Amino acid sequence: MKELLKYDLLMETIRRFRPEVFPFSGRGEVYSFTVMYQAASKFEQFLPFAMAHVKLEEGNLITAQLTDVDFDQIYIGMPVEMVTRLLSVDGDRGLRDYGYKFRPRLTASEKNSPEKLPQHPQNAV
Q: Whole-model pTM?
């Protein structure tokens, strides 16, 4: 019953405020970043990891985790692209939550050679 009330409230909010759909290319550049060494228990298994504000080609800023990159290689203005990666794992139920992260933008030759990507624990699926 409680879940149904939450759903009704969500749908009413959507109807009232009519959120705008914002399609974007998934490409941008690092606007700012930090490396996280502490996190909520849900994310501890991924420590350390890098978080960034990514300025999209369309001009908007989005907060996301960086992946497939050595921390000392990250720089302001680094071109990045969106990818789907593992975000969290619910150990009790075994549910895996996938979502978007950003990695350094690959050239055409690198896209055909996945062994060129650095391997970090946060990249494991």
A: 0.70
Q: Which residues contact 35 (CB under 8 A, 6 or more apart)?
A: 48, 49, 50, 51, 71
Q: Is residue 96 part of a domain?
A: yes
| Sign of the alpha-carbon dihedral angle for 101, 104, 108, 110 | negative
Residues in the chain: 125
Are residues 59 and 95 in contact, defined by beta-carbon separation less than 8 angstroms? no
Domain residue limits at 114: 25-123
Interatomic CA distance for residues 114 and 101, integer angstroms: 17
Segment 12-40, tens digit of pLDDT: 877 787 767 778 899 999 999 999 999 88
Alpha-carbon distance 108 to 111, whole Å? 5
Is residue 1 domain-resident? no
Contact 81, 106 (CB under 8 A): yes
